[in-house]
Each structure stands twice: as structure tokens, then as C-alpha cells.
Amino acid sequence: TDLKHIRNFSIIAHIDHGKSTLADRLIQWTGGLSEREMSAQVLDNMDIEKERGITIKAQTVRLNYTAKDGQLYELNLMDTPGHVDFAYEVSRSLAACEGALLVVDAAQGVEAQTLANVYQSIEHDHEILPVINKIDLPAAEPEKVKKEIEDIIGLDASEAVLASAKSGIGIEEILEQIVQKIPAPKGDRDAPLEAMLVDSWYDPYLGVVILVRVVNGVIKKGQNIKFMAGGTEHLVDRVGCMRPKIENLPELAAGEIGFITAQIKDISQTRVGDTITTVKNPAPAPLPGFKEVQPVVFCGLFPVDANDFDKLRDSISKLRLNDASFSFEMESSAALGFGFRCGFLGLLHLEIIQERLTREYDLDLITTAPSVVYKIKLTHGNGEIELHNPADMPDPTKIDEIQEPWIEAVIYCPDEYLGSILKLCQDRRGLQKNLTYVGGRAQVTYELPLNEVVFDFYDRLKSISRGYASFDYHQIGYREGDLVKMSIMVNAEPVDALSMIVHRGSAESRGRGMCERLKDLIPRHLFKIPIQAAIGGKVIARETIAAMRKDVTAKCYGGDISRKKKLLEKQKEGKKRMREYGSVSIPQEAFIAALRMG
Ligand code: GDP
Ligand code: MG
Fold first, then answer.
1. Per UniProt, where does GTP bind (predicted)?
2. Annotated binding-site ranges
3. Which of 102, 149, 202, 387 is deepest in the core (most CB within 10 A)?
4. pTM of structure
């Protein structure tokens, strides 16, 4: 297609403002799918995505639209992930486009991720077209939202489309604005190939599929291509686009977005943001902006039933085929047996993987407390290590300095919840950087240690604001922190799975809380069991589980034999689910419950 007739755009929005619904409408309007095929949301194709209503992987669809000027246009629509954990993927998708539809819910107005996404879009020099969605809702206030877009974001909203993706209002106007206002891509099809790797995924039939934006040159079947950052070479065996059904094409040229396959076995060879060129006539330099994504949150995943270890390994390997951004390596714990230490882009990413393992692969899992990556400077010039697992913390005498990652968080909320939100941030060692008001709503910026956010910050924020606060963050680097490893000892033996790294100031209350919970969670034994929280050798909290008086069956006075049998059987059942810890049996539920409450 002639460059003049191509438009590449993405849709940006806060979660739930209607991005996927609008994308589906645009596909339907331009004839990509029949009504029947539209029954399920097309762009969100994973179960969990559907249930949570979020988009995990970016997807792209090519639409053909004959505009009112009588010309036929090729529109490439990119759906982008809506959550902060996937910020880098969003950024790469945006880099592949010249414009964006900014979807704002007519009843909710501008929210934190609307802003975060819009700023990214502005950074990529996009033409941004505001769309006020859900005008069918009784609570819709389109004029107020227009004003918010102008006041808060500073965009001209006078020509914002008033739309309802649900009822199909405003769809044609959106398509016309795309054609008229979004600039056509630039590029030179005769130059050496430069294509950006926007996304990749594993397809059971096609193998690894790569989504590309061709910046210069042409990509064709039979070409030998090279990944400039990854360093590997591959033979292109298929070139095409999605409508959203797969369609093979002879080539993708400068300005176009589409997919290729190249007999790639392992998704880890495909790095989002990499530059693809040809082996024969390579580009002189890669495209700018490539960044290797690194997991920031780690936790251990263990099978509840030790016999499921192989199944867990197979399932994790399969998931990894589709998601190169999470990492895993084998780990063994005295308390939990064999499992994996896994790394994620953020907490939501962690939850998604955990949920998919549980649901799609039918595994019962224990997840240890999430931990961030600490940098530890060792004494006596012994260098620096990265700590992914609290259990590996060196002896305090060998530590010169511990550094922890910090984030800058922007929270957007109605004024009445501000007080409790400030308190929450304060309790989590936050440093307030900015506070402004926009139309009855507060926007507050905090610097926070990531370690204080990974536990339950987001849940707490949602609950104290009744769901009205929205939150966005990015990392701002490492800072020294007064951090210590807190060990939990049951019957004088440290339980590695329960150890965690905490700020010295909150160690005591955390330790006390953990001991109190474990006291209730671990059943009585024939002997007294001390439960202690300790830092180094120093005990900071202590509880004791009293010894059991009688055998469970003693109550039955030998009368009812079958009842006695049942009780014994029940006891045996319970045993199976216990982890023997030294001489103490700790039920799985105790680990889960103790860790859940962080
Ligand atoms: P996304 O998270 O931005 O992709 O949002 P979705 O497209 O998944 O939509 C979130 C929810 O809003 C879904 O329940 C949709 O059915 C609903 N929704 C989307 N557009 C409209 C609309 O125009 N009107 C109404 N009433 N609901 C809508
Ligand atoms: Mg969606």
C-alpha cells in the first residue's frame, strides 16, 4: 500500500474505560468479523484477561476502510496492555504508531493511567484524538470530561468524538478522524531493512510469531534476517497480518505493521524493542530506544503436593513459551521442598502467572512472600551482589550497605479519600513530592520503596478509596535502606520460606504479627512450641503454642469405634498435608495464610 493510505494508531485508556470494546467495534464496522464472531471480545483472547478485563499482550489488527473521500485506507490498530506492569510493552507499541485514540469514560473522567498513557503517547509525538466513551450511561457527563481533558491533559477536546462503543455510536466519526488527522507513516522502502520487534508470542501451529513495524525497507518470505540486539539469524517463512484472522501477505514494507514467522523455537530469542534487519544488506545501526526488561518482583512457587513438582516444571516452561518477561529457576526449601524462584515485571504479572498455573494447569501452589531485588555491597571490597531471595541474605557482618529499589507513584483520587491515602503512603515510608487539585480531585505524587508496595499496597489503596483511587508508578533507582532479614523460628529452627527482608523500623510489628498468626495456624503438639521472630541472633517477638493434653480419640471413651476410626483417618489426612519441620508439623494452610497477610 501507498504510504499516503496507511494509518497506524493505538488506543490508550485507563482500565475499563472501553478500549477493547471500541477496538471490537472498529473491527466489526470495517467488516473484519461477522456478528457471530464478535460474540466474544476479540482482542482479549486469554481467559484471565477476559475475567479481569485487562489486556495483557498487545495485539494488532489491520482494517480496510473506505473513507468519505472515496479512498481505501489501511488502518493498523494496536491494542496495548493497560497495566503499569507492562509499561515497556505499551511504550514499544506506541513507538510503532503515529497516533492514538484517547478513550475516556464519560462517567469516570480522566484517571491515573489515562494520564500515564497520554504522556507516553505525547513523548512519541502522536496525534492524539480524544474519544469520550460510554455516553449511553445515565451518569455520563461528556462536557465535564471534555473540560477535564483540556484542563488536566492540555489537549484540545473541542472535536472530541462522543461515542458509545457498546451501542455503536460515533464509530464512523472516529474512523474519519483517524484518516483525516493522524499523519501517514514515513519511511523508505528502498533503504536497508529496519523493523522494530513490537511483540512476540507462541502459537501452537505457527511457532513463535513476531509482530513488527517496518520502519525502512521491505521484509519478505525467504529473507535471512538478523536480530540486532539478540544477535541471532533466522529465515523468514511467513509474512502476514491479522484481520483479526491470519492473512498471508507477499511482503511488509516501510510504514506497515504485520507479523512474521521465522522458524524460531524459543521466545527468549525475541526481545521486545529489538531491531530486525537483513543479513545481506544490514542497517548501519539499530533503531533507538531498545531496553532489556528485567523482572522486579520475585517469589517462590512450590507445589502443595511434592509429587506435582514435574507437572509444575512442565507448566511453567509452557507459560514461559508465551511470556519471555518472566524468569524461573529451581529452588529448594527445607520447609516447602522443591519449587521455583520466579521473577515478574510486577505484582499483577505475578498474580496472572500464579492464576494461570492454578487454573489452566490445575496446580495447587504455595507462593512465598514477594520480594524485590536488593543490591548488597559486601565488606572488605568483596563486591556487590543482587539478592533475589531473602533466604540467600549474607551474614550481617559481611554487609556494608543494602540498597532497595524506589518508585515514583502518582495517585489520583477524589478529595474525600485523600487523608487516608496520605496516611497509607506515610506508613509505607513514602516521601511526598507533589500535591495538586484538579476539579475536586487530588493528584498526589510520592516516592516509595518498592518493597512497601509489593505486599498489599494496591489492595489497601483500592479499599480505602472504595475503588476510586487510581495508581501508576515507575522505578526511579536504588537507595540505601536500613533493612534487615527477619527470620521466623518454629521450635528454635528457622523456617526459610517465612523469612523476609523488612525495614528495621517496622520489623518488630511485622514480627509480632507473624508470630501471632502462626500461633493460631499451627496445631498443638504433644510438646510446647515456641515461635519466634528474630533479627540476626536477637529475638524481637515471641509466642508459645501450649502442649496438647490428650490424644484426639481420648474424648470418645472407647465407645463408638467407627467414630474413633474416622477421627484417626482424619488425623492421617491432615498429616499428609503437613510439612514436617524438625519435630513440628506445620500445615500448608499455615504457610499460605501467614504469607498472605505479609
Ligand atoms: P478496557 O479495559 O479499556 O479494554 O475496557 P473494556 O472494553 O473491557 O470495557 C470495560 C467495561 O465497560 C465492559 O464491561 C464493557 O462492556 C463496558 N463498556 C465499554 N464501552 C461501553 C459503552 O460505550 N457503554 C457502556 N455502557 N459500557 C461500555
Ligand atoms: Mg481491554
1. 16-21, 133-136
2. 16-21, 133-136
3. 102
4. 0.73
